[in-house]
Automatic annotation (TrEMBL):
<feature type="region of interest" description="Disordered">
    <location>
        <begin position="37"/>
        <end position="74"/>
    </location>
</feature>
<feature type="compositionally biased region" description="Acidic residues">
    <location>
        <begin position="60"/>
        <end position="74"/>
    </location>
</feature>
<dbReference type="InterPro" id="IPR032675">
    <property type="entry name" value="LRR_dom_sf"/>
</dbReference>
<keyword id="KW-1133">Transmembrane helix</keyword>
<feature type="transmembrane region" description="Helical">
    <location>
        <begin position="12"/>
        <end position="33"/>
    </location>
</feature>
<feature type="compositionally biased region" description="Acidic residues">
    <location>
        <begin position="38"/>
        <end position="52"/>
    </location>
</feature>
<dbReference type="InterPro" id="IPR026906">
    <property type="entry name" value="LRR_5"/>
</dbReference>
<dbReference type="Pfam" id="PF13306">
    <property type="entry name" value="LRR_5"/>
</dbReference>
<keyword id="KW-0812">Transmembrane</keyword>
<keyword id="KW-0472">Membrane</keyword>
<dbReference type="InterPro" id="IPR053139">
    <property type="entry name" value="Surface_bspA-like"/>
</dbReference>
<protein>
    <submittedName>
        <fullName>Leucine-rich repeat domain-containing protein</fullName>
    </submittedName>
</protein>
Amino acid sequence: MKISESGKSKKKWLIVALAIVLVIGIFAAIGVMNGSQEEPEYSEDSGNEEDQSVYSPDSANEEDQGEVEEVEADSDYSDFVWMKNETGDGIVIYGYNGEETEVQIPAEIDGMSVTEIGEKAFYINSFLTAVNLPDSIVKIGKDAFNGCFNLAEVNLPDSVAEIGEYAFCGCSSLIEVNLPDSVAEIGSSTFLSCTSLTKVDLPDGLNKIGMCAFSWCENLREIDFQDCSGLQEIGMLAFSECGNLGSISVPQGCKVEDQGENSPRIEYY
């Protein structure tokens, strides 16, 4: 079958027309894409100024900036976990989420006195090297600083009256402890395995030293009982494995239980 010259001509024009349509479509698509990347224009009545004030990085007003500063001002206790005590008249520190090596316990939180370091508050804290307690603290709970092997310095203010069991157990960097006169009892294992401890100042009002209180304090060389005339009891193994202590002199009438191996000689005054 032969195609006429006129048929061939129509076919050529059809191909050309399709090519033109295709080119126009491509340029139109490019124009739409470019237009989508342009910034939108706003009329004077479009609220442009208001929109810019919201999204501009410099849009924070003075009132907002003041609120931010207030939050920063509270950061002195923002790393602490705390709650009110049972009577509702004081604050108990139950945890610490910071990584500071030297920690200052706040004297007040939300206008209330911080009265207690709670149970396991700093348990096995590897960052802690020094802690400063305010005069408002009256109690250090069980295991409060247990396992803080880098803790080398702690002040115990005169307000402290109670120190719980295992409170400083395993604080192997602690060198010296000065117990305030308000402490009447040293609980069981309070200073167990404080292997760097060399000196302890005992409180005048002390009446009991619990079981294993200073056990494995192998470098303990100085502890004075001369002002502890009211001491009534030294628990089992309280000074076990304290071979460098030599001897201790306790008041007449004080009950001293078996101290086990490598313990100091007991004398009475």
